[in-house]
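Q: Hi! First time asking for a complex rather than a single chain. Here are the components, and I think there are three in total. Is that enough to go on?
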Amino acid sequence: MFLAEVLGTVVTPVQIPVLDGERLLIVRPLTPDGRRTGKTRVALDRASAGTGDRVLVVDEGNSARGILQDPKAPVKCVILGVVDYVDTETRVYDHRRPRAGKASK
Amino acid sequence: MLIGKVIGSVVATQKDEKLEGRKLLVVQVHNHVNKPLDQYVVAVDSVQAGPGDMVLYATGSSARQTTLTEGRPCDAVVMAVVDSWDLGGDNVYEKWA
Amino acid sequence: MYLARVTGRVVATQRYEGLAGVALQWIQPLDEDGKPMGEALVACSVVSSGPGDMVTFVDGREAALACPTTFVPVDAAIVGFVEQAVSKGVDLARVAGGA
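A: Yes, that's all I need. Here is the structure of the assembled complex.
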């Protein structure tokens, strides 16, 4: 699993049936202190996330198929939760106090 | 999948028994504009490809999803021989040209 | 899944038996600004996409699950045709240009 930021939405009127009724969001993986890392992905939203949210994402087939309860779903990337805050030794992300990141240094 | 040219085959008498009878091709990777790259892959053949053929190969656990490679130590499989491809309407590669 | 632009078509008549009738297309993965991200690759298409289209694709073993026959050696499959992709307030499907 990894932390990511939701950058926007994707609309796909023609798609495989498994995706019908699902919301797709563009997510950019982040380090705990908010730096960009890795490849930008499109994820299924199972946490009612929105643009600007920091989210918890899983990008692995078995987990995704478990969440969708469909053993044949060709899906890997799913948003599992909206992050309230991240505690690390030196930095903290807290959506209630934006830019609090460097305060605990 | 990626595209590459079959430049040879590997013969190994002493090998894992699960690879017995599998044809191993040496594939040089080409990019989308048909430029050969300094990247090589050894892949199990599933489509009777031969030297000089431009082929498509799949990697990772997908490579074990053939009757020839299922449950075997294989991470690349040739799954098609390419006849031609185009980019933005322009023909890039033509087998019979 | 990733965003990508379909850039070309691949013709291959001699192919693994379970792959008959599946379209093979070159795709260029895109980042959140609609710019190329990584190298181009070939993917199976099951949503009648074509050159110039913006699409979503899935990679790895899961890609085979999108194909008509699921036990096939496929590591990338186009699973959706993108009509709109809003990122940072910009619709990439409109501004990022076609083929």
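A: The beta strands of chain C are 2-11, 14-15, 23-30, 41-45, 54-59, 76-81, 84-87, 90-91. Let me know if you'd like any chain examined more closely.
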